[in-house]
Amino acid sequence: LMWFPFLDVIPDMMLGLMCFLSFGSYYCYDNPASLIRTFIEVMKIDNTRYNLLYSLYSWPNVILSLIGGVLLDRYLGVRFGTVVFSVFVTFGQLIFALGGIFDSFILMLVGRFVFGIGGESLAVAQNAYAVMWFKGKELNMVFGLLLSISRVGSTVNMNVNSKMFDSFSFITDQPKRLGLVLFVGFGWCVLSLLAAVALGLFDKRAAKITKRKEGEGERISLRDIKDFSLALWLVFFVCVFYYVTVFPFIGLATVFLEDKYGFPAHIANIVNSLVYLISAGVSPVFGIAVDKTGFNLIWLNFGIIATLGCHAAFAFGSGSAFIPYLAMIGMGLAYSILACALWPLVAFLVPEHQLGTAYGIMQSVQNLGLAIVPLIAGAIVDHKGYLLLETFFCTCLCVALICGVLLYVIDLTSEGTLNLSAWARHRLEKEKE
Amino acid sequence: MMAGTAFGLTFFLLCIMVVTFANEVKRKKCSFTRNETEQYLDTKRLLENPQILFYQLNGRNDTVYYTWSLVGAPTLFISVTPASQDTNCASVANNSFDWDEFTADQSYGSAYIPGYNGSFAFSIVFNRLIEFSDRKYRANKGFEPSKLNNNTDRYSWLHMSDFNWTFQDNELTGKIENDSTTCVIRLNIPTSGGRLSYFPKTLYSENSTTFDFVFRNFEYSSISKNKKDSNLKYGRLVLEMLFVHGQLKNGSVKERFSKDDEYTPSVFITNNYLFGGNGTFDGFLQWKPISYLSKSRKSTQSQQANLVNGKIGDVDIPSSLAYALYGIETAGVVQPVYMVYGTEGDDNNPNADYVSWTGMLGFGEPPQDTISIVIIITIAVGLGVPALLIGVGGVYIFIRRKPWKHIYVWYNTKRGYTKVVNE
Question: How many other C-beta atoms are found inside a 10 Å radius of the C-beta of residue B295?
Fold first, then answer.
């Protein structure tokens, strides 16, 4: 089968390997969130230090988001680069687990930093593979499927780790018990690394047989930044001010749900995983909906307002048990809608030769926010509690909403194309051709 | 210039008035302390072996008496009387005790603090510090007061009367001979409303007093340890308290939920043991269900503090101020309650070296936390600005479209002039 890439089963097999490529990474990214109280009690840390586990993941990606694509395209190649990034992910998780075994929080932080070097770039590599194999075919569906499978990994992590920790009760040394649970994540990363190797071998063979031409590769030019419009910068601000209210919240939500709503730990983890679970299911659906209807800015602002409502419910709602369920489901839906509406906006605002730079800057700014905000969130929880934390998230969403509204106003008054209907955009693209 | 100066001065005076009224002292406090040899009015000096800490707070409508007794089992007593004109609390205190009888054996009738037989008088006797072997980590759900005296494999205790106390700067420090256990009780006798400066930052009123217990370096016995595996620990601390009161109706615990955990991060519940009934609040013991495990008082190093009721009459009043006031015959209620420190399912924090608990005893309606002004302002600005922007943006878009700028052209037709609208 390796020698006949034109058979239908080969693309499906490659798709399966691509899906599994980042499963380990997404499973391990939220290891801290699934065991937050365990980390805090066993490693004897507070919320601020706990959130370093997320912050250090994002710091390397402030730079790597800009150059990761270039590294893949021009220096490492997609195949070798995928394996390299997967090795970083695997070794990072190994060091993280060893931090538990040796009861060293510093070692855990080093592990998360190394893990972060590979994590985001691995997603870029996964997308590069998807484009190589499925461009011009069902690429949107493939992207949606890749994201869905990745989110399944996150959901599995949320629901399994706490129970696994309890079931390892025969290990009375708590840090070692925690390290063993993290080693399970290391196991998943090893499987993902094997998928990366297999992908590389199959792809190399396929490229040779089909005599595939290597592309010019992604080009990043920081000088392009001066050409970026106000609208594009507003898109960047929406991105950062929105996502800092989702991922840092998920990182802290389990204990919040236990403390405010009295949930037992395993229920809190299930509820916390609803955002990812919903996203895994509806992202492709909302992607199709946004494609079919257009009006990206309407969807965008709706997503922001819906998320604002969810955080407001967490902040000002009573301790009734139904509130977190509804709010988490709402957040999952809103997060999926916003992602489908936000990321394509960049392509509407910059010419193709600047896309690499624009997306790189956008992810870089996003990671900068995700590096800083968890520390702020942790400090707020330690000193001022969860109501102020939710107020802080509401404030960030209000800033995102301001940017979203400004974007709408600018687009409307400058006869822009961000909020066109699907039919109008299709007609516009035909006219351009 | 004159007008500006007058305005500035008026504004300055208004500010002074606001600050003055905001910090208005609602009660005037007089304090009196006594040990075997001396009597003090100055509580800043170190007092060895204090016997009585007596506080009289005169308000406009009533006078409150708080008495801490360290003779026998430590006891906190509160009584309320109509407003008293007597400001010499040393005289009041000396007239409230038969010192010889009280210090000898706390016999019934040796204490008669004003208001003790009135409509509101209440005492808490801190009787025992219990060590509880919680092998299944069930915390308060696994604590059984009825088996306390019969099951020595699970329960052992220290008597609080065994502590030797010193008192300085509103802090009682107790130690036991040949034992590392230390108990520190930080007192707060406020003359007006306010908030504690340390977590859990309890909100208090001029009708209440707070106390903060810290137990340090408790020597856990073999019942709290596993002989084969030193990693396995089971010990929880439990503070046995006896509520002894006369006319007040028996109490019940009410939980109150608050959306705001700003003052006690991660705690949304306030517990009130309410005395009284029929919708009225005669008095309360209030606490937040949190016990800190370190001096830094971080919520990440904490455990729960939950009350377990004992059976009325199961525990006799020990030698204490409560016995001196009420004895056995006239005591209305002797309700034992147990404050269990520990969280169900938590196997990380047994045998804790540092256990704290803050309580508040008072009369009238318990103080309630409200959402702070910081949150209100943040939300108002955070939501107000986008709303304003949407409004302004909408007006701007409306103006730019210039809907009313039509140019009318009149044509002379056979039918007469016809209006043609040209946008």
Answer: 12
Q: How far is CA B201 from CA A230, B213, B267, in A?
A: 46, 14, 11
Interface A–B counts its CB contacts (< 8 A) at 101
Concatenating the DSSP letter of every residue in A172-192 gives --HHHHHHHHHHHHHHHHHHH
Q: Where are the alpha helices (DSSP H) in B340-372?
A: none
Helix H, strand E, coil C: the string for B20-34 is HHHCCCCCEEEEEEE
Model pTM score: 0.87
pLDDT, one tens digit per residue, over B326-370 is: 887 655 578 899 999 999 988 888 899 999 999 999 988 899 888
Bridge partners of A403, per DSSP, are none
Report the alpha-carbon distance of residue B118 to residue A20 in Å, rounded.
76
The complex's ipTM?
A: 0.84
Q: Cβ contact (<8 Å) for B393 and A409?
A: yes
pLDDT value at position B21? 47
Please say whether the dihedral angle defined by the alpha carbons of residues A309, A311, A314 and A317, taken in this order, is positive or negative.
Answer: negative
Residues of chain B with pLDDT under 50: 3, 19-23, 404-411, 413, 415, 417-423
- Residue A398 to residue B382, Cβ atoms within 8 A: yes
Are the C-beta atoms of residues A193 and A83 closer than 8 Å to each other?
yes
**Upstream peptide bond of B366 is cis (omega within 30 degrees of 0):** no
From residue A358, give the alpha-carbon distance in Å to each of A219, A232, B400.
Answer: 11, 8, 31
B301: chain A residues, CB-CB within 8 Å: 44, 46
Chain A, window 122-181: residues with a beta carbon less than 8 angstroms from a chain B beta carbon:
172-174
Minimal Cβ distance to B385: which of A173, A256, A402: A402
| Among chain B residues, CA nearest to A396 | B382
